[in-house]
Amino acid sequence: MLTQIEGIHHVTSMARDAQATDRFFTGTLGLRRVKKTVNFDAPDVYHLYYANGTGQPGTVMTYFPFPDIGRGVRGAGEVGTTAFAVPEGALDFWTRRLEEQGVGGLAREDRFGERRLRFDGINGDGFALVEVADDPRAPWDGAGIGGDVAIRGFHSASLTLRDGGATQALLELMGYRRGAGEGGIVRMVREGSNGAGVIDLESRPEAPAARQGAGSVHHIAFAVADDAAHRTVREKLMEEGFQVTPVIDRDYFNAIYFRAPGGVLFEIATNPPGFARDEAMAHLGEALKLPTQHEHLRAALEKTLPEIGA
């Protein structure tokens, strides 16, 4: 069993409208935009990162906004719900706020004894807020939302699978243990995590295959402390027969990717160097930052990429 995985590092999804996505995460949800860069493989498309004030691993939601992308089709083989942690007692505030801002899909529920508020993102993404006591992660304090109710970071992600057995075995290899189960959901828990240590496996044998598009999670990334831990995890996964990519430098972390048995794309990402490697912490997410190989495109990209909020 691996001991290096610390929990979720980030979740990356796809969207259609960069401006609307930015308004939703910085305005409605009150997260900080910590990086404004571009897709390594499609530099005419943004890669936008939203998190707490420091861009701490375990708090980072990222987006590829493709202007012409179709709507995703929900189903098996994807991250169905991304859940954020909020303080105990905060759901009344969030219910009112999301209702006032016209957010759809609002529904209160309990899962494993936790109070949750489900809601839809602007592209039909599946989200939830979960009340958590004494979460030590500091919220972003620049959005006008009080610290007594603000989002702390990720609580969990729910994977929708036709059969969760093989993915459960993979997560156990990655250091998770099986927790409670209810209603076709098995909870996997990483003890001593970075605060984002829960993965729920939702088995839906009848579900159609998911089709990616706007509102779909592209991949879920898990955190490790450094490059040495990264190498250890990669070697073990390859020993177990997973087809793992070489290490890829993503500027703000190093990454490897592989497909989990249920079809979800997994990434393992290093915590360093972090988002302050190329701009001061006080100014994260303000300037357009480009990968070195795309710097020669700056003049054209600054003209064609849509303007988003300051």
Automatic annotation (TrEMBL):
Domain annotation Cyclic nucleotide-binding: ranges: 66-138
InterPro entries: cNMP-bd_dom, Extradiol_RC_dioxygenase, Glyas_Bleomycin-R_OHBP_Dase, Glyas_Fos-R_dOase_dom, VOC_core
VOC domain ranges (all copies): 7-132, 153-271
CDD domains for the chain: PcpA_C_like
PROSITE patterns: CNMP_BINDING_3, VOC
GO terms of molecular function: dioxygenase activity
Coiled coil: none
Keyword terms, alphabetized: Dioxygenase, Oxidoreductase
Name of the protein described by the UniProt record: Glyoxalase/bleomycin resistance protein/dioxygenase
